[in-house]
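Read as amino acids, tokens; as here:

___
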Amino acid sequence: MDLLAEYRRATMYFEMGDPSGAARLLEPIIEAEPSNSSVRQLLARAYFQSAQLNRAEEQLRELVARDPSDHYAHHVLGRTLERLNRPADALRHLRIAAAMHSTNADYAEALRRVESRVGNGH
């Protein structure tokens, strides 16, 4: 299998709005190259976009474990946990992402939203 060609195909599927198709192409690549963070990130995003949230969480936790300074992985993990209705768990990762990349409006908005939920006891 030409992994680079498959990755490019998966990227195309993802960009064309078929995250499930992208995930199917990315899964064997991540099995062959488990340390490839770019592939793992796209796989996590594909899972997130296709509402395979537990799978997204698994991939994102692996990314954060490998590189705790990956603000984007923290942000998407926080968003995933938010969608899984685990706002208290999400808050930690959203705070980390927002602290590391304080100028990102999406990070700040997600943090405000989840802080509000946690503060209101949801």
